[in-house]
Amino acid sequence: MSPNGESRLRARGLTAGYGGTEILHGIDTDIPAGRITALIGPNGCGKSTLLSCFSTLLPYRGGVLLDDRDLRSVPRRERARLLALLPQQPTAPDGLTVAQLVARGRHPHQTWWSQWSTRDEAEVGRALETTGVPDLADRTLDQLSGGQRQRVWIAMTLAQDTPTLLLDEPTTYLDLAHSIDVLSLVRRLCDEEGKTIVMVLHDLNLAVRYADHLLVMGEGRIAATGTPDEVMDADLLRNVFGLEARVVPDPVTGGPMIVPELA
Ligand code: ADP
Ligand code: MG
């Protein structure tokens, strides 16, 4: 919970899966408002599945509350103005330009009487600037490097201009310098615009550095929640990730830093 006790997203007894296979087994958790939550856990533990439930892409049992409302009772367009998801493997039709893709983020804000406003134009421009890709606006997606494409997808998610962002591995395809760029951007969106962010991160050291709140999952259950200082230790790494590692003070931040033992 954030210091003022606000929670933007809550899961209560959240259970979901694919076909007959249950993946999430009754998740209870609160996502603090106006903070960065890093969702971490080993491959296949259900992180993307949880984000799919939070964005109602996947049916679930139990409850998800968004600003104290049952998520399923919020009309789809309104939901898309409140919450944006950047999936782990987003797809777009062939031949779309960067500008056209980012403009798609504005769909939930458009109406039949006002299809494309100066506000939409401004938000698309702002999203392209913020992610550092305005020069790419007229290129098609297949003319981009993996890193450029990832930034363009983030721009589309930002153009949706929602108070809550769900980012599934936003630093995929990015080298360390570009990863830091994106995470610093996420930090700014949180600090300056008060956005609530949930992001799945693979790199545990980046997760503990950039998150205010850690949500650690193991095999479809919550293994731990709290600040990185509270949560990250050698026992957690061993029990949840099967990793032998030391947790030492980060020489830059003083927070926890994970140093794996030699195998
Ligand atoms: P994570 O994001 O933590 O790596 P996922 O949520 O993607 O994990 O996957 C959790 C489990 O659900 C895995 O066992 C995966 O194989 C399975 N799974 C994910 N997506 C599907 C799907 N569309 N159909 C069937 N099983 C799936
Ligand atoms: Mg995933």
TrEMBL record:
Q: Which GO terms describe its biological process?
A: iron ion transport
Q: How does it sit in the membrane?
A: Peripheral membrane protein
Q: Which keywords describe this protein according to UniProt?
A: ATP-binding, Cell membrane, Ion transport, Iron, Iron transport, Membrane, Nucleotide-binding, Transport
Q: Where is the protein found, in the record's own terms?
A: Cell membrane
Annotated ABC transporter domain residues: 9-244
A Gene Ontology cellular component where this protein is annotated is: plasma membrane
Q: Which Gene3D superfamilies match?
A: P-loop containing nucleotide triphosphate hydrolases
Q: Name one Pfam family in it.
A: ABC_tran
What is this protein called in UniProt?
A: ABC transporter ATP-binding protein
